[in-house]
Specification:
Blueprint lengths: L4 E9 L3 E4 H8 L3 H8 L3 E4 L6 H13 L9 E7 L10 H9 L6 E5 L5 H14 L7 E10 L12 E11 L4 E3 L5 E4 L5 E2 L8 E2 L1 H22 L7 E4 L4 H14 L4 H11 L7 H4 L6 H17 L3 E8 L3 E9 L3 H8 L9 E2 L2 H11 L17 E7 L2 E6 L2
Parallel strand pairs: 2-15, 4-5, 4-6, 12-13
Antiparallel strand pairs: 1-7, 1-8, 2-3, 6-7, 8-14, 9-14, 10-11, 13-14, 16-17
Helix pairs in contact: 1-2, 3-4, 6-7, 7-8, 10-11
The structure holds acetoacetyl-coenzyme A.
């Protein structure tokens, strides 16, 4: 019998503040219904200068490693998926390795392909364990991003920020991934990209929606050919905004032969529980699918133990993968103890003026920043450059 491999533990991190989308709609003269019902977005996390993707990644990973059952000395692989790296050369994984005190005999690097980097990390970690290269060790996969579009652009209401840390191991306590039977899809398209000198993404919004759906169609059809038969109890899709998951579900269920009405009727049961946490933070690029997985497990692990869940990951440009996992027995009790939504519980609602001031500060070069801002005790913060190199500290 093959030993199950997959997600053993999850932890999240988010910036301390968020923008309510009804406030943004009012400021932009847009009916709130367009953002809240039309796009399916409620809140988007807004990152301050000290809450950069390294600090967010370290906060998620340090929360994960605070679980007393996890032995950090057994981590042999650390992969960070990110679309918003802070250096063209040095990976976030290198800072993470130092900030978390990971073992020196470990491989640590970043994986990049728009929003797909986290999934690249997860599937690589699973293969690393399945191949025997892990020699009994575990892998840390972290997805960390700050999604930025230009102010007043159509993409503005679909920003967000956050990080997800996943421990990947044999006999996982949360979700065993069906290795070797995923459906892949790739092609070269210009739907979303970010030139090296820009913090804000460029996007052809409507084309990006179509590319996402085409990629889902391709990956899902391929998955259906190669995966073991059996129904999916739930589906988690990449969530740039809530409505996209609704469109995705309709598209996938059409391939299964359902009418649009039947697909829409199944949405509340099969998809909606995975959208609760994404609706709190907005788009987290590489992390969005795993916020959805955390949301689903938090809401429904008790009824899903032993059942199968489908996962769809999309990276613009583009590449995509559809794969499945089975919720582990005992996952509900573990999730209850993890208190997954805790990092979202005491955030501040920024005014539009505060949000725009934060974004104006974003246009300053990194060397303009000094200090740890309002980082809470135990949280990591970007504190500025020293001799041109980025420095971080853990607030006391
Ligand atoms: N009340 C209720 N609904 C309303 C409304 C109102 N007053 N006004 C409009 N709507 C509805 C529209 O009918 C539409 O619904 P449908 O999609 O179901 O038809 C919805 O609100 C959005 O309206 P528009 O399509 O007119 O919105 P837009 O063109 O201004 O922008 C967007 C939408 C293209 C997604 C834009 O937000 C964008 O460019 N976002 C960034 C790109 C993105 O997220 N792409 C997703 C796929 S790519 C990907 O997934 C990778 C990634 O993470 C970036």
């Amino acid at each position: 019998m093959t030993i199950p491999i997959g997600i053993d533990c999850i932890a999240l991190a988010a910036p301390q503040g968020y923008l309510d989308l009804t406030d943004l709609a009012e400021a932009r003269g847009v009916p709130p219904g367009k953002y809240v019902e039309g796009l399916g977005v409620r809140r988007m996390a807004v990152a301050q200068p000290w809450e950069d993707p390294v600090a967010l990644a370290a906060n998620a990973a340090s929360r994960l490693l605070s679980d007393p059952s996890i032995d950090r000395a057994r981590i042999g692989l650390c992969i960070v998926g990110t679309e918003t790296a802070v250096d063209h050369s040095k990976p976030i994984a290198a800072w993470l390795h130092g900030l978390l005190g990971l073992p020196q005999p470990a491989r640590a690097y970043d994986a990049r392909h728009a929003c797909f980097g986290g999934t690249a990390g997860l599937l690589t970690a699973i293969d690393w364990i399945a191949s025997g290269s892990a020699r009994g060790r575990t892998a840390l996969v972290v997805c960390s991003d700050i999604a930025r579009y230009e102010l007043r652009s159509p993409g503005e209401p679909t920003q967000g920020a956050g990080a997800v840390a996943l421990l990947i191991s044999e006999r996982p306590r949360l979700l065993a991934i069906e290795a070797g039977t995923s459906g892949s899809y790739s092609r070269n398209v210009d739907d979303f990209w970010r030139p090296l000198d820009r913090k804000e993404a460029l996007v052809d919004g409507q084309l990006s929606v179509q590319c996402y759906l085409d990629a889902l169609g391709g990956a899902y059809s391929e998955w259906k050919k190669v995966a073991p038969a059996g129904a999916l109890a739930r589906r988690c899709y990449h969530v740039p905004y809530g409505k996209m998951a609704r469109k995705a579900h309709r598209h996938a269920r059409r391939i299964d032969g359902l009418t649009d009405q039947e697909a829409d009727d199944s949405f509340a049961a099969e998809v909606a529980p995975s959208l609760l946490l994404p609706a709190e933070v907005g788009n987290v690029y590489t992390g969005s699918l795993y916020f959805a997985v955390a949301s689903l497990l938090r809401a429904e692990a008790a009824v899903l133990e032993g059942q199968r869940v489908g996962l769809f990951s999309y990276g613009s440009g583009c590449t995509a993968e559809f794969f499945a996992g089975r919720v582990a027995e005992g996952a509900a009790a573990l999730c209850a103890g993890l208190d997954l939504a805790q990092p979202l519980s005491s955030r501040r609602r920024y005014s539009i003026a505060e949000y725009e001031a934060i974004r104006a500060a974003d246009t300053q070069p990194d060397h303009a920043w000094r200090g740890s801002g309002d980082a809470r005790p135990g949280e990591f913060a970007f504190v500025g450059l020293e001799a041109g190199a980025r420095r971080y500290l853990q607030a006391r």
